[in-house]
Amino acid sequence: MPKAKQFDELEVLKKAEKVFNEKGYNGTSMDDLVQATGLSRSSIYDTFGDKHGLFLKTLENYQASQDKAMQQQFTKTDSYKKKIRAVFDYMINDIVTDKTRKGCMMVNANMELNCVDKEVAEMALTTMEEMEQQFAMWIKEGQSTGEISKKFPAKALAKNLYNNIMGLRVTGRNRPDYDTLREITKITLSLLDQ
């Protein structure tokens, strides 16, 4: 009979996330993960397969928690423009309150591993496509009600908004202050009004 797990998997993923985000995938050793999670090597291998399996599960968990936190922000309003603004506000707050200044785990993983890790590249692409689709839906709805300008096609504007969010994530690592990020966002969101 297999031995029952004696640990909280979500807690392990949060601890692993901290290490992976601090050191990167390649800079994180199995010893780092054993020390951070409190698990033995055999427990990590039995549960996640290997370091890469733990990393992918950690990245999935990170993105799911980010998605949930953002969703809580944009469900507070019926205005499509305000929903988009809520996503940007969430990102700015997430950047500024990140005292480690390590940034977004998905962005970091994508930058480090995109060319060499097909699974990470696919996860990053899926995240991008889902966010662009969400933006495009809101933009189309906002354009149909007159709340958002029809100057730009919804899909093109959605891609622009996503690109600007990624830019905020990168800028925020060097300059994580509300004023700078809000100034950038104000100009970006002005595209909705043109």
UniProtKB/TrEMBL annotation:
Alphabetic keyword roster: DNA-binding, Transcription, Transcription regulation
Molecular function (Gene Ontology), one example: DNA binding
DNA-binding region: 29-48
PROSITE patterns attached to this UniProt entry: HTH_TETR_2
InterPro entries: Homeodomain-like_sf, HTH_TetR, Tet_transcr_reg_TetR-rel_C_sf, TetR_C
Domain of life: Bacteria
Keyword Thylakoid attached: no
UniProt xrefs under Pfam families: TetR_C_13 (PF16925), TetR_N (PF00440)
Ranges where the HTH tetR-type domain occurs: 6-66
PANTHER family given in the database record: TRANSCRIPTIONAL REGULATORY PROTEIN
Protein name, as recorded: Transcriptional regulator, TetR family
Lineage, top ranks: Bacteria, Pseudomonadati, Bacteroidota, Chitinophagia, Chitinophagales
